[in-house]
Amino acid sequence: MADDMRLFREAAEELRNWGRWGDDDELGTLNFITAEKVTEAARLVTQGKVISLGGDFSAGGPQGAFKFRQNPVHVMTVDGGDASTLVEYGPQWLRNAVAADMSAFFADNPFRFNDDLIVMPLQAATQWDALSHVYYEDKLYNGFPADSVTSFGAFHLGIEKVDGKGITSCGVLLDVVAHRGADMFCAPGQPITPAELDEIVAAQNVEIRSGDIVVVHTGWWTRFLATGDGGEAGSGLHWTCARWLHDHEAAAVAADNLMVEDPDPANGVEGTFLPMHMLCLRDMGLMLGEYWDLGPLAADCAADGIYEFQLVAPPLKVVGAVGAPVSPIAIK
Ligand code: UVW
């Protein structure tokens, strides 16, 4: 049964970090990542293993279920055909315009190259939600006005603002799939509760410390790779996990599913959608990573029993963007 709005309002009051790192702060809980924390993360590298947590950006991506997001459209703008045929056979106007421009490259010259172009929503695949992604009641994180996100982009809390933090820290994988004995996929209707996170922390014999990035394996991406169905909801964190992340001073949270949190309104707060997004992004200033590919990392952690790693996950620095693609890596 959905919780009521009164509980949400109480949580928002208690968890709100506005002013905690100054009135002009645009980093939120990334402030928990100190120089000492970055050094601590580097010390987790002992085996020389590099594990990619990034999904593919391709026409076969997870988009399509929501009409406002599409999969990437990737086209070539220069390829080998241009070198071998365009100069010789292209229509005159094209030869004038392009071939002339490229004659230095293509004529009497062994050098050849390919170029390409991509059109896509910044939220198409593995991504970070910037703090400007979600707001309510006309306010963004730290009280910045919602109308500071304009058709020119976000003047406050754009993704490029996190540049100074990397984003890199200690990552800790919490493997819900293994804990539930699930095959690939945590079924819808069973949100991950704070108590379950505590159980997983105990079972894995790990600790969540200030500045850690919490990485939650639900199995959704592995399931998507197997079925190609990007519309399946699956479960995620119950909205009350926002408090758990707050109490552990997590720097950020990432998961392998669509929204990190459980999207089922029956498990949320009656009268609103995605309450954990609202609390994390707008009240706490805590970024959400979505569509991460966590299958290989989970397999590796199960094999060596080590669930902590150096996480390196810098978003693409798109100025004013409210989210950005990322190809995170875990290094052990
Ligand atoms: C919304 O919150 C609308 O999207 P996302 O799941 O990408 O954060």
UniProtKB/TrEMBL annotation:
<dbReference type="GO" id="GO:0019441">
    <property type="term" value="P:L-tryptophan catabolic process to kynurenine"/>
</dbReference>
<dbReference type="InterPro" id="IPR007325">
    <property type="entry name" value="KFase/CYL"/>
</dbReference>
<protein>
    <submittedName>
        <fullName>Putative cyclase</fullName>
    </submittedName>
</protein>
<dbReference type="Pfam" id="PF04199">
    <property type="entry name" value="Cyclase"/>
</dbReference>
<dbReference type="InterPro" id="IPR037175">
    <property type="entry name" value="KFase_sf"/>
</dbReference>
<dbReference type="GO" id="GO:0004061">
    <property type="term" value="F:arylformamidase activity"/>
</dbReference>
